[in-house]
């Protein structure tokens, strides 16, 4: 029996996650009253039960009864009914944006202020997040990427690391991305923009990659950057960080930064135990092709 409690911040994707888990063969129940969780678990764990995988949605909609969740979970553990907690999270800025776009009302925004509701919700969900086996930050995750993460954890049973790494190329002339945790400037590398036959190509093209990486300085920079990240990433995990955005920037964001971002992605994907994704923010500006 696999008993998963799906919880997290309103707007972070709990409903979507439950639907995905249902498609993966889980028996899903959303917003069951806290007082009934133990009885439901008794039925699920009972000898002869046909239910093998359960996903139970628990969140702030439970109201004041949510304060009893710690006691209920302790009772489950004492009775040998093992459970796992999946916590869906996102940054405050992303959550506010999602509520504004959907015109939904935050459950705790009594005066209409979504940001105040988010602060209160984080406080009330601290216990669940602190005890979660899996924390997924959906701030930058596409729906298909969320599905992929859930599949790895709850279908393929792969070991999960609570960190999603995004490598993001960009152009400095369009501004530094606000969500970057680390920013690396590669404008010191030879620029394919000044090579006529490479100008309209991008760092996704082999010709541009060969040009940029054909210089010794590019290879040395990639080696040193990879070595530094190999040191930093495990320490970010120990700190409790679950989302790391690494920005790689050049002037226009389509030649050097794209090339180095691609190379860094290849290295981290091959050797990292964490989820790694890549984005090229400015690659299509100024007529550069993908």
Folded structure, characterized:
- The protein is α/β, with parallel strands linked by helices.
- It has two domains: 2-154, 3-Layer(aba) Sandwich (Rossmann fold); 164-287, no CATH class.
- Helix content is 40%, strand content 18%.
- It has ten helices and nine strands.
- The chain has helices at 14-23, 37-45, 69-78, 92-102, 114-124, 126-130, 143-154, 206-213, 216-239, 256-271; strands at residues 2-8, 27-30, 53-57, 84-89, 134-137, 164-171, 182-185, 243-250, 275-280.
- The strands form two sheets. A five-stranded parallel β-sheet has the order 2-3-1-4-5, with helices on one face. It has a four-stranded parallel β-sheet with strand order 7-8-6-9, covered by helices on one side.
- The chain is elongated and about 70 Å long.
- It starts with a strand and ends in a 10-residue tail after the last strand.
- The model has no long low-confidence stretch (mean pLDDT 91).
